[in-house]
Design brief:
The complex is a heterodimer of chains A (about 700) and B (about 60). With about 700 residues, chain A is α/β, with parallel strands linked by helices. Chain A has helices at about 40-55, 70-75, 105-110, 135-140, 145-150, 165-175, 180-190, 190-205, 210-255, 260-295, 295-300, 300-315, 325-335, 350-355, 365-420, 425-470, 475-520, 560-580, 610-620, 630-635, 640-645; strands at about 1-10, 15-20, 30-35, 85-95, 95-105, 115-125, 125-130, 150-155, 525-530, 535-545, 550-555, 595-600, 625-630, 650-660, 670, 675-680, 680, 685-695. The chains are: A alpha/beta (about 700), B mainly alpha (about 60).
Chain lengths: ~700, ~60
């Protein structure tokens, strides 16, 4: 999809008729909109989302979502049926041109603002057709699930790179890379209206005992659904708590009295995370060693005894066999020894050779002796290695634990110092930080509890399924109902496995893409971003160890800015893979490459100056079409210079705000290319004007 | 799901897994995916459940 034009009529503060024409040139693919905070950037982003998806598409940070029509226009209206707001979006998709119009009359807004009118016209081969199922068509062009990754506030996307957001990351992969089909099939097959109905059918024609099991299975299913929902809510809460915690941290960092201690605490928190990760890695390594090789430690006596026996047999010349029995048998059969003596039965020579057969062995015997020697050697080696690994890992764990205690004490000390400061603001912030921290701990504990419950119910569910399947049924109806239910269960399992494999196979492809994008912004070669096995976006770095011959890889606790970049890189990688989706092997037929625009509000918002330049250089190559909303403070300096030099800006606008009061930190004039443009007009009524600039 | 007309390409792990499943199961999964393709992005897709049930009944006699 390539956006052509956005036309607004009385949408929110955009009074009257206003429009933006987006740049559709491939090498000038950036449309830049300058706007101060409070001038209407969020409303503009929401105009696009409302156009595509109606009320459900509006972002959480848009206030009073039910008020779509410009307030002054609505207040003065004497004819609610003929007073309206509308958004028209012209776009191109797969060679066709579309015009989408969504409108809402004041009458509708007063009754139910969700009830909008939508029309979608498609122009193909010079003829215009009206799509009958407009919303369905829009969803098939750009499913609402992917819109948060294409239209977003840059200051709020850092959550994707937060550790607990692996579900959101996998969801993004599913949505953007066409795997939603597998997920929807799993959801619908597992739905009460399918699986539940088949279970009821089975229950109606089955024995009391089995019916009881089926009832229990239905209950367990409900509990699984509850736990899954609960987990989702908790994860969302955790993201919100982290954001609030981050805000308090930022305030403490900015506070003159607390700045130094807070900076030290940030370092310690980072160390704590690193140590926690290391502890987890060592514990995992220890667990793996114990599960793979610890049995050898219990076999130590047995192996020693085996070695003694073989040594003794070797000393007695019983192993390996020095003479092969096949050779002796051949001599006896031939009746002649190698020394040319005749070997006749009953003669002492014959008996002497026959006697040798008792100590002889065949080639297989000798091979087996060799293999036994080797096996004993391997087990002895494994015993030693296992013992060493367990000792080392245990020692390392103890050391990390000690270090963690020191770091935790340091953090506690800072808390005590800041909490007891006389400065009222600092004490208040510290108390608030403590509250959020406790809420965070609670939330994490609750997630752990929910996970345990979920695992318990899932195990019980599988057990019930097997028990039900095993119960013999005589009635043909019951058997058929059981077969159908089994088929649905098996289909769900198969689809879940397919989805897992598809996502796993996409991970290295995505990682390559992520790495390429990340290196364009962060030039530190020792640092990179990786999507881990469990789908966490992790920033890693290589550090030299003390002996300098080796290096160690550490997970970095990223700053807000680094998280924002990581999330941005992840989304850009998805957009880029979505475009070449048809070339990536998959089980799903007919997945074509899809082009998407990216519309970003404040992409430079939380970035330090050192990151802004890199992001500004890279942003035009983020997607085939890029729309950026940027405030004057975020734009000036390196960003302006880099974007100007890139010659990638194809269209440029600024928002001029009319209102009674200028927002805090907003400038009345826009300093641009040596000129100062008026961007604030004092007026009684609030409204925003879109003004075009020369490129 | 898998297209036999395409030039032979190395099978993905998911393709291999799918082909390991019993034929009736493969058919059922294919039918469900076909039904879902048009409606998967819709929030309300009440008709899909009946369609899936019909496929199950038809394929698992």
């Amino acid at each position: 999809m390539i956006l052509e034009k956005l036309v607004l009529d009385n949408f929110r503060q955009f009074k009257g008729h206003q429009e933006i024409v987006f740049s559709n040139l491939q090498n000038r693919n950036v449309t830049l909109v300058h706007a101060e905070n409070g001038f209407g950037k969020t409303a503009l982003l929401n105009a696009l989302l409302w156009g595509f998806y109606g009320h459900d598409g509006l972002t959480d940070d848009l206030a009073q979502k039910e008020r779509i029509i410009h307030e002054g226009v609505a207040a003065r209206s004497r004819d609610p049926a003929n007073t309206s707001a509308s958004v028209r979006i012209l776009f191109k998709h797969e060679g066709k041109k579309y015009t989408l119009t969504r409108s809402l009359s004041l009458l509708q807004q007063n009754l139910n603002s969700r009830d909008t009118d939508l029309s979608l016209e498609v122009l193909q081969d010079g003829e215009t057709f009206r799509e009958r199922l407009s919303q369905q068509r829009i969803q098939s062009i750009m499913p609402d699930g992917i819109s948060p990754f294409l239209f977003f506030n840059g200051e709020r996307i850092d959550h994707l790179a937060m550790e607990e957001n692996a579900p959101k990351v996998t969801d993004a992969i599913k949505q953007m890379l066409g795997l939603k089909l597998l997920q929807a099939s799993i959801d619908d097959l597992s739905h009460q209206n399918v699986r539940g109905r088949l279970r009821t059918e089975l229950r109606d024609c089955t024995s009391t005992e089995k019916a009881a099991l089926l009832d229990e299975q239905a209950e367990v299913d409900e509990k699984i659904t509850e736990c899954t929902e609960r987990k989702k809510t908790l994860q969302a809460n955790l993201v919100a708590i982290d954001a609030d915690l981050e805000k308090v941290n930022a305030k403490l960092e900015a506070n003159r009295v607390a700045a130094e201690l807070q900076a030290r605490r940030n370092q310690l928190e980072k160390q704590k995370t690193d140590l926690g990760d290391r502890l987890q890695a060592v514990t995992k390594r220890l667990g793996q060693t114990i599960s793979d090789d610890a049995y050898t430690l219990f076999a130590d006596d047995l192996v020693k005894r085996g070695r003694e026996i073989t040594n003794q047999l070797r000393a007695e010349n019983k192993i390996p066999a020095r003479v092969l029995n096949t050779f002796l048998e051949e001599l006896l059969q031939r009746g002649q020894c190698i020394c040319a003596r005749h070997l006749q039965k009953g003669t002492p020579e014959y008996q002497a050779v026959e006697q040798l057969l008792t100590v002889a062995g065949d080639q297989n015997f000798n091979n087996a002796v060799g293999a036994l020697d080797n096996a004993i050697g391997v087990i002895e080696g494994t015993i030693q290695r296992t013992r060493d690994t367990i000792q080392e890992a245990t020692k390392e764990r103890l050391k990390i634990r000690e270090d963690l205690t020191v770091v935790e004490e340091g953090i506690e000390e800072i808390h005590q110092k800041l909490g007891s400061r006389d400065d009222e603001e600092v004490a208040k912030l510290e108390a608030s930080r403590r509250d959020w921290q406790l809420k965070r701990d609670d939330c994490i504990a609750e997630i752990g509890k929910t996970d345990a419950k979920l695992a318990e119910h899932t195990t019980r569910r599988e057990q019930l399924r097997q028990d039900i399947q095993r119960m013999a049924e005589n009635e043909a109806d019951a058997r058929r109902a059981q077969r159908r239910l089994d088929a649905v269960e098996e289909s769900v399992k198969l689809l879940e496995q397919l989805l897992r494999l598809e996502i796993q196979d996409l991970r290295p492809v995505l990682n390559k893409e992520i790495d390429d994008h990340f290196k364009k912004i962060i030039l530190k070669r020792s640092m990179w971003v990786e999507l881990s096995d469990d789908f966490k976006l992790t920033v890693r770095k290589k550090i030299s160890t003390s002996d300098r011959s080796e290096s160690q890889v550490l997970d970095v606790a990223p700053s807000t800015g680094e998280r924002q970049i990581t999330s941005l890189v992840f989304i850009a990688s998805l957009v880029s893979l979505a475009k070449r989706r048809a070339d990536i092997p998959t089980i799903l037929k007919g997945l074509s490459g899809a082009e998407y625009p990216m519309v970003m509000d404040s992409p430079f918002g939380q970035l330090g100056a050192h990151f802004r330049e890199g992001v500004a250089q890279w942003i035009p190559s983020l997607a085939p079409q890029v729309v950026i909303f940027v405030s004057s403070t975020q734009y000036e300096g390196a960003v302006a210079e880099v974007l100007r030099k890139s010659r990638r800006i194809g269209k440029r606008y600024y928002l001029c705000y009319h209102g009674p009061k200028l927002a805090e930190n907003a400038r009345p004039e826009l300093p641009l290319d040596g000129k100062r443009l008026e961007q604030y007009v004092e007026a009684d009524e609030e409204q925003t004007e879109i003004r075009e600039l020369d490129v | 799901m898998t297209d036999n007309k395409e030039a032979p390409r190395e099978q993905t792990r998911s393709q291999q897994e799918f082909l390991k499943a019993a034929e009736p199961l493969q058919q059922l999964v294919r039918a469900v995916l076909r039904e879902e393709r048009d409606v998967m992005h819709l929030r309300r897709r009440s008709e899909i459940y009946q369609k899936i049930l019909d496929h199950v009944r038809q394929r698992i006699p």
